[in-house]
From TrEMBL:
Residue ranges of coiled coil: none
Pfam families documented for this protein: TetR_C_6, TetR_N
UniProt name for this protein: HTH-type transcriptional regulator BetI
DNA-binding region(s), chain positions: 31-50
SUPFAM superfamilies membership: Homeodomain-like, Tetracyclin repressor-like, C-terminal domain
InterPro entries, sorted: BetI_C, DNA-bd_HTH_TetR-type_CS, Homeodomain-like_sf, HTH-type_TetR-like_transc_reg, HTH_TetR, Tet_transcr_reg_TetR-rel_C_sf
Residues covered by the HTH tetR-type domain: 8-68
Keywords on record: DNA-binding, Repressor, Transcription, Transcription regulation
Amino acid sequence: MTRSIRDPSARQRIITAGARAVAAHGVHAASVRVIAAEAGVSTGFITHYFTDKDELMEAVLEATNRQAAARVLRAARRDGTALERLGRAVDVMLPTDPLRRQEWQVWVAAWGEASKGDRLSDGYRAGWTGLRDIFAGLLAEAQRAGELDPAVDIEHRADRLVTLLAGIGLLAGVERPGRVRSAAERMLAEELAWLGELQPAR
């Protein structure tokens, strides 16, 4: 059960420190003690806001998902065709700056735990389901606007984009940032260009 929030900014400070710790050390090594040191507070301070580490990890994942989703939605709502907006929505998920690399490190760490069916699995699935739904919505809009062949399987293409992004996110942990950026931009450009070529049959 979530503790009473006396100071939302303090709670957010803990979550932000938790995200940095998970990105740097993984879920298991990011202990409450490590997170407290990262936040510059005592472990007792953390327990005023979170009943245990599991609750804090869930909050870290939820905050990471929410931050990324807001950025994707901003890109998706800008001017342009549906496919252009889809391209921007995909682009802002690429791990090409420190903040986005940290998000990917958190997701990869959560993925390792989610595969065991623990409490992070729901948050992990929710994040990716939300992203896939945004992509599917833009693809459906492209079909309605005549940008995309009506025969295209929207759900499948949205799944492909999410899966491609997930692979790129894994690369971010082992490759140099410049190389990841170059490979990611090329792969996604090819995928989006293919979609743009699928004009409705006349």
